[in-house]
Task: inverse folding
């Protein structure tokens, strides 16, 4: 049987974590190709419903990346995102969605190595728990 | 206990004022244990106001349903106030709406009722099913409800009929009011809303089994949204078409997304009145979701909704040292 390759959606902020992912690429650091990145201007722009919608639409996991606290380009977006995702994550766990599926990380523009490590860890964890079937949409279009 | 004469007296006085448009209160329903909202535009209308342990409805919802029609040329805006009869939780809902700038304090007159808990309609209908006559219930001083049905008097211990949210209510006295009817009630020991702890300890798969069974039954009537005083968005995310956050099809995936969204949008805003669960036609335990979030929010951010109009909304502020143990 073929090994399960998870589909992970990464919402990364333009200023830090996306630049971090870019750095990982330009420095030719190897990391799993499972994360499909969607760039947003700020982690504070991520509507927590994005997470739910991604899981419905075919993602096996969601990774959210923002600047380190204090480094947000818009000064407070990542702090707000931290609160929002903390509550959403706990709610999803409570209704029975594995905590491994929703992850959040702080990656700065200089942390290409860290980005690669985080992606590796997240991919490994999701491989272990298998595909997301619980709230997957039946007809995806 | 609320003195009915006093209630009517005060309502009459307020409605006679120039600057008050109408007052929303409770009146008798038509059959069974029903209670209806009443709108008093004149002092005579106030005669039909009642208050009993059956008055579980959260009337704060009417403050945000007030329709503001576009003005005709030369017409002046009706700036008169709206009055509402509020229990502890209803008053907190009003505080929360004011905090979010959905309403202005000066547009409201609040008649506060120190609340001793309300009867859960679903429980009493189960105990005395299929009643066709109108039935009244009073509470005596020994924590019992006196229910008079067809000439026969039943005495039921309060705890058996009391709403679950009332059992764990910490704020029975309205935090915001203009007049208070009677003495503030003493806050006795409250029970913890224990159902969430039981489920919290179960493994992930069991949690999903539990909720799956419930979410599958949701018919997406959105009654939970309509009854909630804090679901007052002009355009609900469940109704938008572009983007379509939630599809119209009624299936497990969309139902789950809807229920997550509703509960999540009330994080740090829900004031635990229990209306959403009361109106759900398929008995989904929505309060368990609300209470779970309420507890998380309290634990993580030390935040309680609906107590202070000046406070900032939960998701509109932050503390630099908010917990972040979940972040990689
Ligand atoms: S009231 Fe119940 S059935 Fe109706 S939409 Fe809400 S949860 Fe679903
Ligand atoms: S979510 Fe339910 S309990 Fe909370 S305020 Fe709305 S109706 Fe009341
Ligand atoms: S469910 Fe959300 S978007 Fe819809 S009315 Fe309630 S708070 Fe507003």
Result:
């Amino acid at each position: 049987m073929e090994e399960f390759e998870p589909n992970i959606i990464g919402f990364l902020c333009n200023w830090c974590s996306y630049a971090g992912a870019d750095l990982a690429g330009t420095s030719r650091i190897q990391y799993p190709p499972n994360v499909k990145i969607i760039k947003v201007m700020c982690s504070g722009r991520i509507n927590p419903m994005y997470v739910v919608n991604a899981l419905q639409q075919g993602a096996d996991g969601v990774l959210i990346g923002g600047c380190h606290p204090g480094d947000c380009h818009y000064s407070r977006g990542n702090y707000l995102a931290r609160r929002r995702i903390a509550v959403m994550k706990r709610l999803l766990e409570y209704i029975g969605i594995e905590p491994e599926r929703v992850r959040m990380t702080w990656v700065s523009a200089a942390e290409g190595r860290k980005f690669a490590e985080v992606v590796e860890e997240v991919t490994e964890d999701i491989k272990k728990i298998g595909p997301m079937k619980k709230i997957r949409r039946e007809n995806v279009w | 206990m609320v003195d009915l004469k006093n209630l009517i007296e005060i309502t009459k006085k307020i409605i006679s004022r120039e600057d008050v448009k109408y007052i929303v209160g409770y009146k008798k329903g038509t059959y069974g244990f029903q209670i209806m909202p009443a709108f008093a535009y004149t002092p005579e209308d106030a005669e039909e106001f009642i208050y009993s342990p059956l008055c579980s409805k959260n009337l704060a919802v009417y403050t945000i349903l007030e329709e503001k029609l576009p003005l005709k040329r030369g017409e002046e805006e009706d700036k008169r106030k709206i009055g509402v009869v509020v229990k502890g939780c209803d008053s907190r809902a009003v505080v929360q709406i004011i905090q979010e700038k959905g309403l202005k304090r000066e547009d409201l007159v609040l008649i506060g009722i120190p609340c001793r808990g309300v009867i859960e309609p679903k429980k009493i209908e189960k105990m005395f099913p299929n009643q066709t006559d109108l039935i009244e219930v009073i509470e005596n001083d020994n924590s019992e409800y006196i229910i008079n049905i067809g000439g026969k008097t039943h005495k039921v211990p309060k705890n058996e009929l009391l709403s679950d949210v009332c059992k764990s209510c910490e704020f029975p006295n309205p935090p915001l009011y203009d007049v208070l009817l009677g003495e503030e009630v003493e806050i006795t020991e409250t029970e913890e809303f224990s159902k969430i702890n039981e489920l919290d300890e179960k493994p992930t798969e069991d949690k999903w089994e539990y909720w799956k069974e419930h979410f599958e039954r949701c018919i997406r009537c959105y009654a939970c949204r309509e009854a909630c005083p804090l679901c007052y968005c002009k355009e609900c995310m469940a109704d938008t078409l572009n983007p379509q956050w939630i599809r119209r099809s009624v299936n497990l995936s969309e139902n789950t997304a809807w229920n997550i969204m509703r509960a999540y949008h009330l994080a740090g805003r829900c004031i635990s009145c229990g209306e959403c669960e009361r109106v759900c036609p398929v008995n989904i335990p929505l309060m368990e979701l609300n209470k779970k979030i309420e507890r998380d929010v309290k634990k993580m951010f030390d935040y309680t909704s609906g107590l202070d109009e000046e406070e900032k909304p939960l998701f509109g502020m932050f503390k630099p040292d908010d917990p972040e143990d979940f972040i990689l």
In short: The beta strands of chain A are 8-13, 35-40, 61-66, 102-106. The mean pLDDT of chain A is 92. Residues B 218-224, 279-282, 284, 286 surround iron/sulfur cluster (ligand 1) (CB under 6 Å).
